[in-house]
């Protein structure tokens, strides 16, 4: 299995980190694909296979760490590309949340 689980939606509280500028404050690091729970259960294959799918927006996937679980909030296409290339890790910005959704640390 590529991911720890396939979810459908964000089970964690709203954290308020929305824009690319907000996420840029979170330092990227490597995350194992098999530790991620997706927040999307479907992906448009045209988006995955598009040549410029990683050109626009952030270069790194966005992951939220809440209650000991790593949720892949944005970057499913990047994670799947990494898996198709037989890589075990993806570079991601990991936002750590407290139980109530307060941002503990950005990276």
UniProtKB/TrEMBL annotation:
It holds the Pfam family VapB. It comes from the Bacteria. This is Type II toxin-antitoxin system VapB family antitoxin. It comes from Oceanitalea stevensii.
């Amino acid at each position: 299995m590529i991911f720890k689980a396939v979810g459908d939606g964000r089970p964690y509280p709203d954290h308020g980190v929305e824009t690319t500028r907000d996420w840029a404050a979170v330092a990227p690091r490597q995350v194992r694909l098999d530790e991620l729970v997706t927040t999307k259960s479907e992906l448009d294959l045209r988006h995955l296979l598009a040549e410029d799918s990683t050109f626009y927006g952030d270069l790194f996937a966005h992951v939220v760490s809440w209650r000991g679980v790593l949720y892949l909030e944005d970057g499913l296409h990047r994670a799947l590309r990494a898996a198709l290339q037989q890589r075990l890790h993806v570079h991601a910005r990991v936002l750590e949340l407290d139980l109530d959704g307060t941002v503990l640390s950005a990276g």
